[in-house]
## 1
Amino acid sequence: MTMTLDTKPATIHSDRNPILPLDLGPVEDTKVNRSAIERRAATLPTRRSVKKEWQAAWLLQAVQNIDLTTLSGDDTEGTVRRLCVKARQPIRADLLKDLGLADKHFTTGAVCVYHGFVSTAVECFAGHRHSRGGGFDRLSGGIKSVQTKNRRDRSLGQSGCF
């Protein structure tokens, strides 16, 4: 199978985040033992599932790696605040106590909101370790110009993101 990609560098970029050409060399040079991979993959459905404390540990790790997102067109400050409260304490205190983890602090990995609600989210996390984030502009419409994107990014930085 042959794959061809256009690897010429893009002409529009910022000094803060330069675009580098795609180098597929490391991917193309990777060697795998296909029969060993297929043999191992075939055993996965027959293995026992993760049990007891290991299952709880895996689930707690998963919670810390998810992001809570509200990108609805009808978002309000109230919905953003509720999302932030959930991100600050995604696991009920009684469950953490039953697991012997009442003294531990778990949060989600991120909270994603539209640009217009970034200041609300930042305010909700003031003084909290989960204090940085990012904002999204309308995903379906995209950003019309590099200047608009750069203005928006500067605004997000001043709001406490990135």
Note: The mean pLDDT is 77.
## 2
Amino acid sequence: MLRVGVDRLLDADLTALSGVEVAELLAALEVQRRRLDAVDVAVLAEADCRGVAGEYAQTGTPELVMTLCRVDPAESRRRTEAARTLGPRRTVTGEPLPPILAASADALRAGAVSATQVDVVTRCLGRLERVPDLPMAEVAPVVERVLLDAAQHEHPGLLARTAQAIITRLDPDGVEPNDEQAQRRRDFGLRKHPDGTSTPTGRFTPDATATIEAILDSLSAPIPAGEDGIPDDRTAGQRRHDALLDALKRLLRSGTLPDAGAAPVTVIVTVKQGVARTGHGDTWTMPDVLRYLDCAEIITVVENDLDGVIAYGRTKRLATPGQRRALAARDGGCSFPACTRPAAWCEAHHVIPWIDGGNTDLINLCLVCPFHHGVFEKAGWRVDMINGHPWWTPPPWIDPARKPRRNTAHHPPDLDFTSEDRPRVYSVMQLRDGRCRPRRHSAGPTASVAGPMPALVGVTLRGRGRSRPG
């Protein structure tokens, strides 16, 4: 029956469907794909319980999956562990038991979450099990519920970030060894190639990573199409490469670098018989030399041949640098749902248009990337400010109920550790003197520190957890 249904879909004429119908079919297929993962869990759990692997001369269920399904060892182990965590169980006497993570199993069976999202939940709980003195019998159901709720609007990457935030809240002292290890492992180098190019190698510390990301965000945005209508055709990797080169050239031109060998930092290029070589022995083409002449101090030796937050009202149309910093701290980037473009790539959008009397105030501004700024109205979306934050209302063909949505790609959702079925909740575990002490949930103080725009390096402190790059 399953094969017949798939065959019908494969033979269907998709060209006869409208765009909305194609999108609805895609969403429906994803739900059934997830439910098939739940079927896989049930089948593998039964095979594991019966010991079917021995009948095929295999040492265990992972090896059976690898042999029969021709998947790699990591995938076979992942699927077997999922079956043991989410599948039905039986006692020694054959009585049925619920899955270990019953709520996750139910969500997967309903197609509300994917197997990858459930993997995030499982890994988070596994990490918390290693926290000393943490009462997992009370903590685990709450954490599982929070993550399953977040999975309704976060893809696995964002869900992993939320899981890490939970781990940090429950085990704040666990970060110290990682910081020390990051400092010990920091490294950087260039592996040069014969044609003058190089491959960067190494490992950056968190602060170096945040600084580099801020520079790349500032300089790697796609160049808007000009009068000719031709868009920026560079890949994201190429734009980041060009942004790093631009930043380094700006640094060279700034004159702020310390002397090297008792002389100002200078790129020395020696040209001999049409071949250009730098002081480090790298070979350049002549077009490379000519391009560099315009942006750095080069000595060519020829041998032979880079405030406060104020509401300005109607006197200004464009957001000030102070307002831009505040928008970056509040929105974190493009405020359109699920968009991950950073603040430095975005424009300040008037919720009530300027031409209709909208003020250039923070309560009337939100960050939107150039792409969504140009298409959201045509696509039927509307933005409104609710409690000081931009919320986006989808068109009826996307959500008939037109329920407003907020983008959580840049700021994790507030972690709600409340529970209706018990009066006391171990929401945040404070580790003091080697002992865990539970306290009631508290939103905690919120503060933000933002650097200069557009190259913004921000730190947002939520509760008493770890700081993170903004």
Note: The first helix runs from residue 2 to 11.
